[in-house]
Amino acid sequence: MLHRDYNENPFIVIWELTRACQLQCLHCRAEAQHHRHPLELTFEEGKKLIDDIYEMDNPMLVFTGGDPLERPDVFEIAEYAVKKGVRVSMTPSATPNVTKDAMKKAKDIGLSRWAFSIDGHCKEIHDHFRGTGGSFDLTMNAIHYLHELEMPLQINTVISRYNYEYLDEMAEMVEKLNCVLWSVFFLVPTGRGKETDMISAVEHERVFRWLYQLSKRVPFDIKTTAGQHYRRVVIQNKMREHKGMSDKEHIFYQDALDNGKTGQIDGLGRAPKGVNDGNGFVFISHTGDVFPSGLLPINAGNVRQTPLATIYRESEIFKNLRDPDKYKGKCGICEFRNVCGGSRSRAYNVTGDYMESEPYCVYIPRAMRGKKQTI
């Protein structure tokens, strides 16, 4: 795992089992529908896909949607993957599908972890963001069941203008819920997500600095999605804290791994180097289309016609995304480009070009300042 070459194999594969979902979230990437699509990958096609994923050095596999529990065969698919030795986790929606029986089934099959989304510290904010009344209470009940079953909990939170003012309250709640990982998403304006719902570039920076300080005192791990520049903020803070580190000529992702923690969470582990859209990360849609991520809607092929490994390794889109030296603007000359690289999906959705600079980053690279960096 430590020597995984992202040019050959991803660290994580996301498979959108279905777009069907009972919620109507304001930010929904998938613009989820109430009914399943007739051209979803079948159970047999899903097994073939899992075989192909396993052969790519057995990356982590996450079932997402829509709501994966809207597929009646979700547990059969999961069982097939787990029996092969694939590490599987799931991100279901907080709907009446999330029963204690469903969670017990997942545990008995051997799912590595269960992830729930909480986007507000109270039901008013969360339910507004999720577009469905009662979602907050359903989520809390489900987490209670999860703890009863002693299954590891991951909490996913989308940072937006709706909850930016309540981060301290959010952190306090997350800590009380006893999760192993808080996965903090930074809104990308795609699907139903709007640019007007996003926080500003300066606010992104404030949240990153706040997350770093939080990471030093909480028992759970923190990771960011579509917030690659958090890695830069972590390294900058560590440079301030550790004399001599600021003299380093080369900056590595390991420098950003938090506070001497082991990097091992309930057997899943953390990426040994920075993951970005198409670079250690691949997304497969409900109909088999392959994208660099669910937030970067450029189709690179379909697993019904082309093996996943061929698309991931040989697609021009994926190859471009794995070469930070090709990035445009300040991202292409930034000294943190191999560690950070900015969100390629946000660059695409804001500028129309997935190789453009991260548009919500305030940092000015050393090369643009014409002088030695001061920390």
From TrEMBL:
CDD domains from the UniProt entry: Radical_SAM (cd01335), SPASM_MftC-like (cd21123)
Names of the cofactor(s): [4Fe-4S] cluster
Chain ranges of the Radical SAM core domain: 7-221
Keyword Transmembrane helix belongs to the record: no
Keywords, in A-Z order: 4Fe-4S, Iron, Iron-sulfur, Metal-binding, S-adenosyl-L-methionine
Domain of life: Bacteria
Full protein name: TIGR04053 family radical SAM/SPASM domain-containing protein
Lineage: Bacteria, Bacillati, Bacillota, Bacilli, Bacillales
